[in-house]
Every structure is written in structure tokens, then in C-alpha cells.
Write a structure and sequence with these properties.
Elements: E1 4-10, H1 12-20, H2 30-41, E2 52-54, E3 60-62, H3 64-73, E4 77-83, H4 101-107, H5 113-128, H6 140-149, H7 153-167, H8 173-186, H9 188-200, H10 209-219, H11 224-240
Parallel strand pairs: 2-4
Antiparallel strand pairs: 1-4, 2-3
Helix pairs in contact: 1-3, 2-3, 4-5, 5-6, 5-7, 5-8, 7-8, 8-9, 8-11, 10-11
Amino acid sequence: MHVTSSIITLTPAKAQRLLDNMVCNRKLDIQKVEDYTRAIKDGRWQVSGQGIILTQDGRMLDGQHRCQAVIRSGQSIQILEVRGVQLSAFDVMDDGKKRSAADVVGLRGIANAKTTASILPYLWREKHGVALNGWARMSLREASQLIDQNTDVAVSAHWVVGNKGRIGKRACGGVLGYAHWKAGRINIFNRDEFFARFSDGVGLGANSPILRLREGLLAAEHNPATELGSIILAWNKYHTGTGRFCMYDSSKMDFPAWSV
């Protein structure tokens, strides 16, 4: 067996020829294709150790999703092509553990990688105009880009880890970290006071939205959407000093926006 590798230009036409000559048409992962397509269109595609794998006679063993993305984007890319792999290798391809956003964060040497990664889907929703309580379809490339563009997320992750013992089960780490980060982008001084008091409960008056938030999140079962919606409502009241605070209830109100 003689295996060779080279960097090639994969055009939409060549991608289609490769798809037409696949060893086996596996089930298409639409999300993965969309992730690759966005990366190509946004100019974020990079040559990596993964690419197109062919048998000696040119039949494609691996690369279906990349080829589909090239066709959908209508653009050519540079990609690694490995040729000469035995047909029997098809049975063990893609058998490894899928890399996570936490792995991407950890590879950068950032502390609290798991907590930092849990914040990123909320940043992705903001960037793409998706509701904060909606579904986040963030690729690892996008997670990497978000980390590079928002290095202060690590500060918020550090705050979450350091205060989780006092906050308890009031909210999950991703929600807390995102809210801490976002409030800091609005007003860092108000952010620091708001979350310090949310954490320790010191000196809060009976009508304080922070006190009512602390109590409300302990009083009943809740999910991340309820947690985040309630934090935003409490922040809006605290930050602007107007309106009234109540816990977020998805059956009675739209999801709130941040007051700046």
C-alpha cells in the first residue's frame, strides 16, 4: 500500500465528482454541512489534518460533508487530500471521540475551560441574531473565533467558578457566565456590584430586585431560560432604576432584552 498526501484546490465541480464516486453514501449531518459552509463563506476555512480521503482508484472514503459544503458555498477551498488508503479503513473512520468546545478552549491554555465553553453558545446567539433562549448551532470553528474575539469571557468564567459555592443551584454556569459578561459590556461598575450582591446577598433591602431574584431562583424549579430571563429582568431594574421586577415566566411574557 502506497499512501500519498497533498494540498489540493477543491472546486464545486470536483466536489460533485467525488460525491458521485463515494464508496458509501453515509447519512448526511446537515448541521455539520452548515457549519462548514458558514466557515467557507465567512473566510474562516483553514487547511487542517482532516480532509478528503481516497482509495488508490480515486473512490472517496471520507470527506462527504466538506464536499457538500463546497458545493453549497459555491466557492473553492484548499484542502488536504490523502490518496491510497485501503478500502477496509472505511469501517473505522470517524470512530474517535468528537472534540468539544471545551477542548478548543483548553487547547488555548485558558483556565476553567468547561465553564468558559458553556458561555460561548450565548455569544453565538447574540452574534447571529438568535433568541437567547433559542437553539445554538455553534461549530468548533465558531467557538474558536468567539474566544479570540471575546477574551474577557474567561474573566466571567473565573467569577462563576469562584462564586458557585455561594450561588448554589440558583443558575447554571453558562447562564451566570454569560450574564456576568454581558452586564460588564453594558456597565462594568454596575455589573460588579450587581453580581457581588447576587452572590453574597449582603445589604439588600426588602424591595431589591437582586434579593427577589435570589429568593425567586431558590423557590421553584427552573431551567436555563427562566434563569437567564429572570437575571436580565433584575439587571434591567437595577441598572435603569425604572419598571418593576418579576421572575420571568415564558407562559406570560416574551423573553426580555438587556437594558443598556
